[in-house]
C-alpha cells in the first residue's frame, strides 16, 4: 500500500541542489525551512548563538550566501579568546589602510587588512571612514584566525542585504537559555550540591550579565563589545551589570 502523504524528491533536483550548495555556495535553491535548518547548523558548528542573528543573507554575483554580522565576530572573539595585538595605519594614493594583527588563546597569530577611500573627505566623514577601516581590519582578522571564509558586513557592497530571507529558527525561551548558561558555568554552591539549589531559579540574569562582562574583559575585548541584547531599553540593569563586570567592579546597588 502506498502512502500518498510521503512526497518524493526528484534525484536530479536533489543533485542540482547539492551541487549549488557545496560547489558554488549558493543557498538560493534551498527552501525557507531548509535555509533555516542550515543557518542553525552553521551557527552550532562554530559555537555561536543563532538566536542573536549573527549571520544574514545577501545575493552576490547571482548567489545567495551568508555573511557575518557584528554579533558573529563579537561572539567569536569571546569563544576563541581572540585579542588584537597590534594595529598599523598607513595612507597611500587617497586610500587609508589599517593592518590588524590578532592572537587567539592558543597563541596562534594572524593578520588582515581593512582599507577605505578617503580622498577628498574631511571632518566627521573622514573620521568615520578611518574607523570603518579599523573595524573592517579587526573583523576580517577575527574571521581569518577562526578559519572562516565568511564575508563581513563591513565589506558588503552598497546593495542592501536580503533581510526578508533571514531564517526563523524555532524560538527558545529565555528560561531555557538561562538554564543552559547556568549548566555550562555552575556556581560554587551548585558544584558542591551536584546541581541547582532546589526551589530557586536557574540563574539570575543580572549575575549572568555581570559574569559575561568579566569574561569579555578576560578575553581581551573592548568595552564596546557589550552584547547587543543588553542595549535594549528594557535591559538597562543588565547593561549596567555587564559594564561593572567588565570594569572588575561589584554589581551596582539597586541593579540586582
Order of helical and strand elements = HHEEHEEEHEHHHH
Main sheet characteristics: 3 strands, mixed
In the predicted model, the low-confidence regions spanning at least 5 consecutive residues are 1-9, 158-174, 184-201
The amount of beta strand, in percent, is 15-25%
**Which secondary-structure class do the elements indicate?**
alpha+beta
The side-by-side strand order for the widest beta sheet comes to 1-2-6
Separation of termini?
A: 63 Å
Globally, the shape reads: globular
Rg to the nearest angstrom? 22 Å
Q: How many distinct beta strands?
A: 6
Helicity, in percent?
A: 40-55%
Q: Return the average pLDDT rounded to an integer.
A: 76
How many H/I helices? Answer: 8
What does this structure look like?
With 256 residues, the chain is an alpha+beta fold. It has 8 helices and 6 strands, in the order ααββαβββαβαααα. It has a 3-stranded mixed sheet. A 3-stranded antiparallel sheet has the order 3-4-5. Helix 7 packs parallel to helix 8 (236-246). The longest helix is centred in the middle third of the chain and has 23 residues, at 123-145. The radius of gyration is 22 Å and the shape is globular. The termini are far apart.
